[in-house]
Design goal:
The chain is an alpha/beta fold. It is built from ten helices and 13 strands.
Length: 309
């Protein structure tokens, strides 16, 4: 039986915060302790468990295999404690802060318009929203929920699908009036095509033409670091871009953008997921409330709720 004078949840919280923040000193500042107190507490925890949890270096902390297992279970226990306390204190109403990271297009056109409705339904939950096209590490960025667009890679993160959205090559009416519309995919060699400049992107566009699947390199005088910048360049007539309907559906409906080469569209879609750290029911109520709300309310078949011109 565990000794009654051992504050096991307190040890877990200090350990989890040190891992989350990457060191004893930042954990000490967050917990209003001294770095030596944090170090001694974790050393005492390792002694009690009979296992080394962390490898210390002058620059960062590295989890051992035993540390990874203990960290995962400690997060579950702390989440359960947090949820139990919130349930008792607030009659099971979700409360607290939830940090959401989203790429810029989804954030602007689908997430932000839903915030007033979420706040009305959950007035005790504070949303901390970060829009960035950089894929963040949820633990490093202290993020509860992240929106990921595209194929899901194998990871230990949990995911809930929010929907999927078809792709289209589009241009502005002004651009098409000046340069004409491409009749076949190979005509793109004579057009200004806006690609992306981030490392994980391959600047080839897929098509189906005369029964053959093509993957054609594209060229242009501008690239973009995110989908919203690409959209803005297309809107001002800079060239063509291949973007997702969840992002440009409102522009197409309003006539600001025109799809081209639709007969050659291969019909691929972008999947959109909400990802988070947790397993099954091991989620704080505030985080579960956000995820359940997004799953219910996000509708990618509708045009985006706002248009940034």
């Amino acid at each position: 039986m565990a000794r009654l004078d051992v504050n096991r949840s307190g040890e877990m919280e200090v350990f989890a915060r040190a891992v989350e923040l990457g060191g004893f000193s930042p954990a000490a500042r967050a917990l209003k302790m001294t770095p030596s107190a944090v170090s001694k507490l974790i050393s005492r925890l390792e002694t009690r468990l009979g296992a080394r949890l962390l490898n210390r270096s002058t620059r960062k902390l590295l989890l051992t295999a035993e540390g990874e297992a203990f960290h995962e279970r400690a997060l579950r226990v702390l989440a359960d404690i947090d949820e139990a306390e919130c349930a008792v204190a607030a009659s099971q109403a979700p409360r607290g802060r939830v940090r959401i990271n989203s790429n810029v297009p989804f954030g602007l056109h689908h997430l932000l318009p839903l915030v007033p409705r979420f706040s009305a339904a959950y007035p005790q939950v504070t949303l901390d929203i970060v829009l960035s096209d950089t894929v963040v590490d949820l633990m490093d960025a202290r993020t509860d929920v992240a929106i990921r667009v595209g194929p899901m890679r194998a990871s230990q993160l949990m995911a809930r699908k929010l929907g999927e959205s078809p792709m289209a090559v589009v241009a502005s009416p002004a651009y098409l009036a000046r340069h004409g519309a491409p009749k076949t995919p190979r005509d793109l060699a004579g057009h200004n095509c806006i690609g992306f400049n981030f490392a994980r992107h391959c600047d080839k566009w897929p098509f189906v033409f005369e029964g053959e699947r093509l993957s054609l390199p594209i060229h242009g005088d501008a690239t973009a670091g995110d989908g919203e910048t690409s959209r803005q360049l297309v809107l001002v007539g800079q060239g063509l871009a291949r973007l997702s309907h969840f992002h440009i559906g409102g522009d197409i409906a309003a006539g600001r953008l025109v799809p081209v080469l639709e007969a050659c569209n291969p019909g691929d879609v972008e999947e959109i997921h909400a990802v988070y750290v947790g397993h099954g029911g091991q989620l704080p109520m505030r985080v579960r409330a956000v995820i359940d709300f997004l799953v219910k309310e996000v509708d990618l078949t509708r045009p985006p709720a706002i248009a940034v011109l």
